[in-house]
Structure prediction request, 804 residues.
Amino acid sequence: MAQKRQVRVGSQWMYARDAEKALGEALRVMKEEEEGHGHHESFVTKYLFSQDHKWIGVQYGFTALCFLLFGFFLMIMMRLQLGWPNQPFAVIKWFFHGTGTMLPEQYNQLGAMHGTIMVFLAIVPLAVGAFGNYVVPLQIGAPDMAFPKLNMASYWCYLPGGLVMLASMFLLQSKGGGAQSGWTSYPPLSVIASQGQTWWLVGMIFLITSSLLGSVNFIVTIIQLRAKGMTWDRLPFFVWAQFVTSFLLLLAFPPLEAAGVLQLMDRVAGTSFFLPSGLVVSGEVLKNAGGGNPLLWQHLFWFLAHPEVYVLILPAMGIVGEIIANNTRKPLWGYRVMVYAILFLGFMSFLVWAHHMFLTGMGTVISAFFQTTTMIISVPSVIVLTALLLSLYGGSIRFNTPMLFALAFLPMFGIGGLTGLPLGLASSDIPLHDTMYVVGHFHYVVAPGTIFALFAGIYYWYPKITGRMMNEALGLVHFVGSFISMNGILFPMLILGLGGVNRRLYDGGMQYALGQPLHGLQVGMSYAAWTLALFQLPFIWNVFASVKFGRVADANPWHATTLEWTAAPTPPIAHGNFETIPAVYRPAYEYSVPGSAEDFVPQNSGPV
Amino acid sequence: MEIPYTASVRPDTGVTNQTLGMWLFLASEVMLFGSLFSSYALLRSGAMSWPDQSSIVNVPLAAVNTVILIASSVVILRATAALRGGDVARFRALMATTATLGIVFLAIKSIEYRGELAEGLRPSTNNFVGLYFVMTFLHAMHVTGGVLVNLFLCGPGMVMNRRDAPRFLGRVEAATLYWNFIDVIWILMFVVLYLL
Prediction:
């Protein structure tokens, strides 16, 4: 007779057959309860206009992943043009209804929309809207977000904003196409650009409203709805990261809203807030009042967009912190220092914006000031990265898929951060400014940095959401392929930039003598982009197929300490998250506590 | 499922969700109006010439409006006090007065706009007039929102007072904070756009 194996249910070990019986019983009781309590929700209130933070998180996540894929597709088309300039391709013909050869203004559209979609419609909604929404209330022991209706409204401002952006690309091709002034929309070019820019501004106003509603909600939830005993120094690092992120969103976005309104006025009401006197457009002096200042836009824009950079990276750091503590089976090294570091980071991020404007002639005094603050802000990032690296030391590391992505985040964000230092110093920024080096730098931060952390988070929290594990073998393929091809795209950018190739050249620099010898790199990068696309297929399959075919996850598959695993059922119950709201007795990462029976002690396990 | 601390104060933080949420919202509003005021400062300080503001806009009407809005701020505070003291009828009357004063403010503002449009002033005339229209219109939209909320609170919204009085009081307090904030923004606008 075969040996009987035991499985773990909650804190109990039992024979598999008994567990199956218990599961059947549990399902029956849950079904009864659901019917008995009369939660007769219609399809509309349950799936469309849900006020449950978990479903809203899933809505955000799914929408954001779709936008991520679309933004990636735009990039693929750009890479076709950069690798093989001015050659016709069927996909370009299909997308632009043209001859198949990409026009410069079409390339500009792709660039502007790729940036906008990736930052505002993919990464931030995924990092904050999806992960923050789903995980934060569970981790702090809250029954839901503080304002469920606002939460719903936040998603329903985000979606129209995104659709307006998309519509501008698909509906306006006969009228000049979508926005094409870069994701930064610098005037005066953006003011005199075609109609798509107006749609861009309208879309942005929706997105800003959405993030405002979301950030108020997050801050209030974290301050007010922490469970009993969940003191500030017991908050998981991920929650701290979301907390700081929300403050950045709350305070940095309104200036862009003001700037957006002013640019909209410039475009539709003929004002000249951003248009200087005597501007010559197509050989004629523009007939407007003049007296405006294009730099005003840059100040307002970067006052948002620099904190926005930290909005992109902080949730990623939070996710990586969770996963590293869990998979090294050790408390985070220097938890408290990390928290102080990100608080300081959040504060400083409001004081560095003009390092994006060293070449605008602000003057050396202002440049020196912003150069100094920029060097200062690199310190807390290095603290967090160092603490995460030191957390690895002496741990018995489990190399599962989330951990692989989290580990890859460290050197990738390291490269991204370190290549930023020469850009933060005004003198070395002069030759590097507006080259492919800048593109390489911020993509290293956001693509293999943040996106890898987001992948890690998806693999880590997937069993929480669906009750099933994702496939580890497919995860490994996804990881290795993405890691190599991502570097294959991005590292050559740094070389191209150092070689002097400008960014936003629609032929990849072929018209310049300095760009021609480097063209081989462009071709290689394009192949790497296709490879990257190929290696996303196992991931997409994994996400959808594991809902049905994945191994059933037990309540705490990663043996984690935080409340979302130890106190909430997996997958969580629809209303209220917890059977009873848990109380918290210990810090967030009590792994390998000497003398305890298991190598982790849940936050809600009672006082000894 | 009940969200805790919606109307009751959380002991260790000392606030309700509603109050904290409103303060945070106002913080973002400070950044919104703050950047408009900063834009004004930057454009004016960099301008070759700047028109004599008080000769363009209607200072007397705006002064009347300032008095009206300050008065409404006092009235809404009295309304909140009345509700806190349990005098629902008095609350209702005072809240309705606040909303009425808000409507009067908007009416006077539209008379101002009409006069300026009749003189041929447009946002495109120059940057001062442009900023004047943008900033005061944005403020007027905030007033409109506030008036609607105030009307709701002394009208259909009062049902909640019978069902869940502490939560209703929380709503009224949040609306009061908002209304006072709008008042402060208007005073700043009056000084910067009319008098300076």
About this structure: Chain A touches chain B through 43 residues (CB under 8 Å). Residues 232 and 240 of chain A are 9 Å apart (CA to CA). The radius of gyration of chain A is 25 Å.
